Amino acid sequence: MKLLYSKTSPYARKVRIIAAEKHITLELQEVVLAEPDNPVPDFNPLGKIPVLIMDDGEPLYDSSVIVDYLEQRTPVAHLLPQDTRMRFQVKRWEALSDGVCDAAVSAMMERRRAENLQDPSWIARQMTKVERGLSRMETDLGDRSFCVGESMTLADIALGCVMAYLNLRYPELDFDKKYPKLAKHYARMMQRPSFQETAPPPV
Ligand SMILES: N[C@@H](CCC(=O)N[C@@H](CS)C(=O)NCC(=O)O)C(=O)O
Questions:
Q1: Left (φ > 0), alpha (ψ -120 to 50) or beta: where does 57 sit?
Q2: Ligand 1 atom 16: the closest Cα is on which residue?
Q3: Distance CA 4, CA 12 (A)
Q4: What are phi and psi of 197, to 5 degrees?
Q5: What whole-number distance in Å separates Cα of residue 162 and Cα of residue 102?
Q6: Would you place residue 40 in the very low, low, confident or very high pLDDT band (cuts 50, 70, 90)?
Q7: For a pocket test of ligand 1, which of 46, 48, 63, 109 has the largest count of ligand atoms closer than 8 A to its C-beta?
Q8: Which residue, of 15, 102, 166, 168, is most buried by count of CB atoms within 10 Å of its CB?
Q9: pLDDT tens-digit profile of 148-162?
């Protein structure tokens, strides 16, 4: 199986961590989305990464679909609880984490436009989603070690990818200081090889 990815994509990192935790080997193909002839649209009409190309050539996207596929592929290291209520709590953490990333990515794209073309109200609207999401997660995590239950799940992985991405793209906002429980959680996750091996390079 081949994963189209970039080193800074938080969604692709989530998939790479899940694969590492479940001992699933993925062939990695790094792509540059800014290059007009990048292969991603051939596999995902939305032109987004990650895309998983399965052994028979069929592509899977988006990241939450790929995660479900990897989870069902092997019983090694279950990252979604069997209990239905807990399972949907984990999926909600994933949705909130991905949604915070969506808003952060959207604000970042707007900030990259020429200054006279930027819409500050759009950036503010997206960053409000980021702050509301982080604030909810800080409250919900509290002083617990894991987002849901007593062991690591997809929720912890998705949350960890958010914090790293925000620190990479918005270092000046010092989210670690504002959300210390989330920062502590990320530091704990970073003790795992799967997190260390997939950490985004400094930009
Ligand atoms: N919901 C998608 C989001 C993926 C996404 O937005 N990826 C970004 C890279 S971090 C991307 O491919 N952006 C290119 C674009 O939107 O055209 C997922 O979870 O896979």
A1: left
A2: 48
A3: 8
A4: -70, -20
A5: 10
A6: very high
A7: 48
A8: 15
A9: 999 999 999 999 999
CATH 3.40.30.10 domain range(s) in the chain: 2-73
Please state the atom number of ligand 1 nearest to the C-alpha of residue 46: 17
May I ask the CATH architecture of the domain 84-192? Up-down Bundle (1.20)
Structure confidence at residue 99 (pLDDT)? 98
Report how far ligand 1's centroid is from the alpha carbon of 148 (Å): 26
Query: Mean pLDDT in the chain?
Result: 97
- Mean pLDDT on 13-26: 98
51 pLDDT above the threshold of 80: yes
The answer to whether the beta carbons of residues 40 and 33 sit under 8 Å apart is yes
Q: What is the pTM of this model?
A: 0.97
Contact indicator for 91, 75 with CB cutoff of 8 Å: no
Q: Which residues contact ligand 1 via a Cβ below 6 A?
A: 9, 11, 33, 47-50, 61-64, 98, 105
Query: Closest ligand 1 atom, CA of 48?
Result: 12
User: Which CATH superfamily is 2-73 part of?
Assistant: Glutaredoxin (3.40.30.10)
pLDDT one-digit tens code per residue, 52-66: 999 999 999 999 999
